[in-house]
Amino acid sequence: MATSKHPWAEELPLLYDHLWKCLTRGISDRDAAARHPTLATVNKSGMPQARTVVLREADQQAATLATYTDIHSDKIASLRVNPAAALHIWDAEQKLQLRVEANVTILNGDEVSERWQRIPEHARTAYSRGPAPGEPIANSLDYTKTPAENAFAVLWLDIQAIEALHLGQHHRRAIFKRANNWAGQWLVP
Amino acid sequence: MATSKHPWAEELPLLYDHLWKCLTRGISDRDAAARHPTLATVNKSGMPQARTVVLREADQQAATLATYTDIHSDKIASLRVNPAAALHIWDAEQKLQLRVEANVTILNGDEVSERWQRIPEHARTAYSRGPAPGEPIANSLDYTKTPAENAFAVLWLDIQAIEALHLGQHHRRAIFKRANNWAGQWLVP
Question: Fewer CB within 10 Å, N or C, chain B?
Answer without folding.
Answer: N
